[in-house]
Structures are given as C-alpha cells and as structure tokens.
Amino acid sequence: MKLVILEPLGVEEEKLLALAEEKLGNRAEIVYYDTRVTDPDTLAGRAEDADIAVISNLPFKKEVMERCPKLKMLSVAFTGVDHVDMDYCHERGILVSNCAGYSNTAVSELVFGLALSLYRRIIECDRAVRAGKDKTGLVGLELSGKKFGIIGMGAIGTRTAQLAKAFGCEVLGFNRSPRQIEGVRMTDLDTLLSECDIVSLHVPLTDETKGLIGERELSLMKPDAVLINTARGPVVDSRALAAALKEGRLAGAAVDVYETEPPIAQDHPLLTAPNVTATPHVAFATKEALYQRAVIVFDNVAGYLDGKPQNVM
Questions:
Q1: Residue 72 phi, psi (nearest 5)
Q2: In which band, very low, low, confident or very high, does the pLDDT at 241 lie, cut at 50, 70 and 90?
Q3: Which residues are within 8 A (CB) of 168 and not within 5 positions of it... i.e. 6 or more apart?
Q4: Active site residue 293
Q5: Strands, DSSP E only, in the chain?
Q6: Taking the model in full, what pTM does it have?
Q7: Catalytic pick among 261, 268, 288, 293
Q8: Looking only at Cα atoms, what is the longest distance across the chain?
Q9: Residue 299: what pLDDT?
C-alpha cells in the first residue's frame, strides 16, 4: 500500500513521518513531498501510483484523479472538501475522510483577535506609534455588552459562542437546521443581521451558502456593525461588502478567506475598502491545530486500513 503526502502539512518532516510510523507501522510505504504544487500534470505525476493520497487545501480535481488508477482513499487534512471533486470520488468509489474538529479552538480564537483588532483599532494604533503620534482619534469599543451573532452553530460556531459569552456578549445564533445551544438565543438570519453589533460566519461552502451574505443581507446590518468571515470566501459577496464599507453602511470587516487562496489579486475590492482587517487564511494555522490535524490524517488512514473508516465525507 503506497501513501503519498502531496503537500506540506505544517508539521516538521521528521515529526510528521514519526507520527505516520507510530499510527501505521509498516503497513504503508510513505512518500512525502515538501513542496506545494497546483499544476495538474505535476500533481498527477506525484500521485499516479498512490493507493492513498493526503492533501490539505490543494485543489484535487477529476483531471488529476483520472490519472491515478490505483487511488482508493483521499485523506484530506482540512475540514471543508469543496476543493475536492467529490462527485468524481463517489463515482470512482474513492473514500474521502476529512479532519473535522482539528481547528475549532484556533479559528474561534482568531475571531476574537480580529474582533478586538476592529474594535480597539489595533492596526491604526500601531501605525500611530510608528509615525510619532498619540492616541488622538483612536478611541475604541468594548466587546462586553455587545450583541454577537454567529451564523452556523457547528463545532466552531459553538466554541465561538462560548468565548463571546466569556467576553460578556449577548450571543445570537442562526443555524440552517434547528439547534439549541445553552446561552445562545437562536433566531432567523434576518433578525440576527439586523440586531447584532458583530456578525461572525461559520458555515461550510455549499450551493446553499454561496453568496449567503450579499447586498440584501448587508443592508439589514446596522451601520456601526462589523462582519467577520473565517469560514469560506464565496459565502460573502466581496463587492457588495466593499461597497457597504465605502458608503458607510457598515463600520468594518475582518476577512481571512477569499474567492481564491492567497496571495489574492491586488485589485481585490476589499483591499481598497476602509476599515478592513485582512489576514491570509490563517485561522486554522496554529502549531497545536496543525499537529492535531496530522494526528487525525493518519488516524483516518489507519481506520481505513483496519476496515473501520472514520470522518467519511
């Protein structure tokens, strides 16, 4: 059985391969690539004789998998699998496992780093000090007492709610399927958008959630509200968000995800919109989360080899 790790996973190579040996023993020959490539021909060349392939958020489409006749399993070191051609995997009978849960803490903690950056104007404060200025014009806001809205009450959304309550926020939640979360007032999407001071997105990218937050939804938000997106870029209409910010219909936004993986085009509309804190898709990227992700990757492979697959998509 040949296992090919097609891109770096954010864990030192020696530690990663030791973990693989610990989990799999001698049941798989392991090939590790320490560079990330997206060219389909190169990817296919790397994976063509793999029985099992490991990727993170590397696009893995039909044109690559068609050239991998032995491929039986794909262990995705990520929560979402929208970058994988799932229809083709189902057609071919290729089992796909994800790493749900590895970054719950990492993502939810960054939400509050972003919220505090917007509310306390941390980036502007840094620039002021470096320019020899004082705090004039840099009065901030407190999270305590604000209405904090969470769209998508899965594991990350629920963890975010716990942290919001710790900051003294009143938490409102919206979920597409009915859920009851202790200490969270569940409501409909329009009510959440119209009432909340801070809105944080935590939904997967699906046909139903693409463009979930567009011009109409943004128009419901209060002019002094802020939007935080650590979910998926296409969940939000970036042009509509940029317009709302430029026209003063929204106070600020913090964005970690975009329509494509960073580096993004320098003419992206959010890069010229005011009061935007932008990060390069780092919400999941902590040392602790990346190691836990690697553990789940190899647990998934071990489960498959044992005939007990887990985290199946």
A1: -120, -25
A2: very high
A3: 143, 144, 145
A4: no
A5: 2-5, 29-32, 52-55, 73-76, 95-97, 147-151, 170-174, 184-186, 198-201, 226-229, 252-255, 276-278
A6: 0.90
A7: 261
A8: 64
A9: 97
